[in-house]
């Protein structure tokens, strides 16, 4: 999943409308049996036979991007950041009357994580084959292909996947603590188990779940272990997680962005937030200043990190910038946060992003939008069958390189 949403109320834009529509994106991505309060009514039940290797129920969760596969790694990152946004900017969600919708979006993912965590050291990180997926077109409701399930174990480890999912569950436990303490406790228990699994059995998940390499090849796992420990410390106040941080922090290689693969910017920001330790404050300031002052820019000034989905990187960085206005007092980073947000939203008809429905793409890559039986038509990746049946009013559109 590649859409991450945040809210900052300014007079210039209708962020309430943006937030409401953005949360609908997650409803459109739902897999499994849909609830009676589903707002995106053109989506129906799908993938009701998703099972693990031993028949475990793996229905539910979210489809990735415009495809059929459920990739646990990016799904977990999305869930962590959704929870972070709700926890630290709940007032914005309250103003938008979107707190409940955001909780539901988070829970749709965490319910699946609980299903996928079938034992302490066994976790399903993917359902569906990326290779098969990209050779097929049509609605998820019409899928007929086999959907294999892939897991990490002690002999096929995935420290990054386990620790990221631990972060997601720990963050979500804080979200639900005040409204469903029993569910929150369950999330936290699974978070602890998954973190221990990832810490004790080291390896990259994409080396174990090789099918994921078509779309999500992980580069390191140390950043996820630090990120997961930071979230578990916030959720538990248990000092042992700071011991893990102290052990691992210096081993994390320098990372530029903040995304499904790179967590260090988020980790250092969270660690400063929960410890107020000056060493993290210095790292956050240096990181933000470097990004602001050294990044490539588009002609209109948008920070440009990578050519595949550039607007998401700018959005994620803006979120980091707004977490702490300034760890060291007056800092130009906060001023530039507003600039980044504004630049992002000044592309109503351009290739970078469309936050609101000022421009409707005729052929977005989204199988959920396709009409019934489209899978029976002949087409290629560059020649999709006619126009989509449904229009999304919430999509984050980007031009592929």
Automatic annotation (TrEMBL):
Keyword annotations from UniProtKB, A to Z: Carbohydrate metabolism, Cellulose degradation, Glycosidase, Hydrolase, Polysaccharide degradation
Superkingdom of origin organism: Eukaryota
Record region (Disordered): 341-401
Catalytic activity: Endohydrolysis of (1->4)-beta-D-glucosidic linkages in cellulose, lichenin and cereal beta-D-glucans
Domain Glycoside hydrolase family: 15-326
Biased amino acid composition, Basic residues: 364-375, 385-394
GO BP terms, alphabetized: cellulose catabolic process
Membrane-spanning intervals of the chain: none
Keyword Hydrolase assigned: yes
One of the Pfam families matching this protein, by short name: Glyco_hydro_9
A GO term for molecular function: cellulase activity
Enzyme Commission number(s): 3.2.1.4
Family from the record: Belongs to the glycosyl hydrolase 9 (cellulase E) family.
Protein name: cellulase
Organism: Timema genevievae (Walking stick)
């Amino acid at each position: 999943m590649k859409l991450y949403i945040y809210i900052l109320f300014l007079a210039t834009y209708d962020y309430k409308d943006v937030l409401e529509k953005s949360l609908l994106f997650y409803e459109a991505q739902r897999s499994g049996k849909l609830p009676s309060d589903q707002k995106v009514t053109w989506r129906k039940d799908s993938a009701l036979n998703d099972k693990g290797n031993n028949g475990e129920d793996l229905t539910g969760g979210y489809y990735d991007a415009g495809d059929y596969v459920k990739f646990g790694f990016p799904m977990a990152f999305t869930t962590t950041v959704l929870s972070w946004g709700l926890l630290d900017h709940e007032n914005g969600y309250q103003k938008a009357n979107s707190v409940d919708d955001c909780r539901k979006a988070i829970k749709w993912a965490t319910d699946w994580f609980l299903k996928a965590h079938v034992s302490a050291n066994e976790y399903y990180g993917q359902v569906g084959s990326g290779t098969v997926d990209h050779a097929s077109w049509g609605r998820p409701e019409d899928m007929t292909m086999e959907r294999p399930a892939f897991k990490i174990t002690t002999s096929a480890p995935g420290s990054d996947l386990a620790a990221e999912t631990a972060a997601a569950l720990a963050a979500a436990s804080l979200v639900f603590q005040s409204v469903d303490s029993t569910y929150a406790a369950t999330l936290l228990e699974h978070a602890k188990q998954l973190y221990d699994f990832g810490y004790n059995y080291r390896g990259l998940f994409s080396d174990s779940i090789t099918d994921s390499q078509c779309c999500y090849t992980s580069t390191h796992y140390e950043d996820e272990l630090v990120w997961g420990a930071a979230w578990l410390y916030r959720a538990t106040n248990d000092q042992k997680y700071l011991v893990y941080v102290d052990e691992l922090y210096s081993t994390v290689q320098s990372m530029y962005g903040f995304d499904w693969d790179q967590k260090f910017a988020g980790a250092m920001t969270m660690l400063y937030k929960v410890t107020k330790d000056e060493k993290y404050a210095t790292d956050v300031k240096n990181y933000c200043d470097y990004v602001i002052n050294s990044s490539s820019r588009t002609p209109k000034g948008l920070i440009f990190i990578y050519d595949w989905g550039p607007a998401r990187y700018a959005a994620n960085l803006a979120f980091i910038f707004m977490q702490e206005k300034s760890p060291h007092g007056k800092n130009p980073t906060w001023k530039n946060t507003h600039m980044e947000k504004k630049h992002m939203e000044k592309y109503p008809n351009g290739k970078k992003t469309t936050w609101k429905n000022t421009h409707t793409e005729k052929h977005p890559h989204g199988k959920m939008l396709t009409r019934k039986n489209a899978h029976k038509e002949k087409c290629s990746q560059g020649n999709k069958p006619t126009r989509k049946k449904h229009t999304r009013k919430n999509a984050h559109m980007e031009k592929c390189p």
